Amino acid sequence: MLFAGRRAALRVQLWVLIVLLYSGQVTGSVLDDVIYKRGEYKENCTRFLKATFPTGTGIFCNGTFDVFACWPHSSPGIVSVPCPPYLPWITEGATGNVYKECTVNGTWKTEENSSTIWRNQSECENHYFFKSEEEEVFRQSVLRVLSIVGYSLSFSSLCLAVLIMSLLRKLHCTRNYIHMNLFVSFIFRAIAVIIKEIGWNSYTKSTASKVSLEYFVGCNYFWLLVEAIFLHTLLFTAVLTRKRLLKKYMILGWGTPLLFVIPWTVAKTLYENKRYVPVLLLIDTLKRCFVIFCIFLKIIRLLLSKLKADQVKFTDYRYSLARATLVLIPLLGVHAIVFTFIIDESVEGSSRYARNVVSLTLSSFQGLLVAVLYCFANGEVRLVKIFEL
């Protein structure tokens, strides 16, 4: 049982190496090097066993490559061979050995009450070699689960919000059409992230998936910008019934992100893994956040002045809309600006993990917050639902 546990630990270490490769924590060359060296070791073992096959009579155990190490044709007794050099923690000049026992019957000794061949590989193990990587794998798993849960809740709540606003005809107006488009942009974003997280490898590795995700993230910002612009206009105009404005808002919300995404896509295609793409992405994010924050500050000043002059009452729907928008803009904007500067390269260890947890929590639950503020907690929606029921 002890040796079985040790072999299991070794398999876990190799599994961790593979997982780290596919999760982007180690480069492909590390695993490629292990695979190449193991294949070379196996080929050399096969040639060695053919060349040294005993020609005389006598009892001996047949040599073999048992997936882990190369064992020569051996007489009865304890047999030892050096630790396989393909293991990444085995350095040149290492003195460790792995052991088997050849019985007097000419067979390799098996473990007690088992058909598994006994092997002592304790000298070839290093339980701490992948310790930091194992912790990183666990952290990445936690972040992945958090992401899926957050975006799933956002997706379901947003779909329900869209359904409610679509069915309640008394809510059909420019203001709520803007809300619904904001919901839809978050829905598409949630779908793109969930597909990426559940592991559609062929999809997630394609440029199309990355481009679509960037586009929907951009749409989130620009529909939030539309919310701010509409509120700004509404505070200046007591009655706003011109539906033609909705077409302009549609172009701004769904069309403008293309002006950022298309150059980003071209730059990513031409300069993949080079410094230009992060710089372009940083400039893109800062531009969007800066514009939204400028409008945010102007809305605050205007709203305070109107409240002070009693031009807007606390029971006015414009006040409710302003309150919801003024909650969203700083929350989403501060999140975007702060975590644009606090990149992975600037923090390490637990600080990076904490940063990722906070950032991912805010990002994944944004859709749920939007649905609550603009639909579920919206007094107008609740009143219409009660009236129609």
Key features of this structure:
389 residues, disordered N terminus, Rhopdopsin 7-helix transmembrane proteins, two-stranded antiparallel sheet, 4% strand, Hormone receptor fold, 13 helices, mainly alpha, single chain, GPCR_2_secretin-like, 4 strands
Structure description:
The chain is mainly α and 389 residues long. The chain folds into 2 domains: 60 residues, Irregular (Hormone receptor fold); 258 residues, Rhopdopsin 7-helix transmembrane proteins (Up-down Bundle). Helices cover 67% and strands 4% of the residues. The chain is built from 13 helices and 4 strands. It has a two-stranded antiparallel ribbon with strand order 1-2. Strands 3-4 form a two-stranded antiparallel ribbon. Strand 1 and strand 2 form a beta hairpin. Helix 4 runs antiparallel to helix 12 and helix 6 packs antiparallel against helix 10. It is elongated. The chain starts with a helix and ends with a helix. The N terminus is likely disordered. It is found in: Cell membrane. GO terms for molecular function: glucagon receptor activity; peptide hormone binding. One of its GO terms (biological process) is cell surface receptor signaling pathway. Keywords: Cell membrane, G-protein coupled receptor, Glycoprotein, Membrane, Receptor, Signal, Transducer, Transmembrane, Transmembrane helix. It is a multi-pass membrane protein.
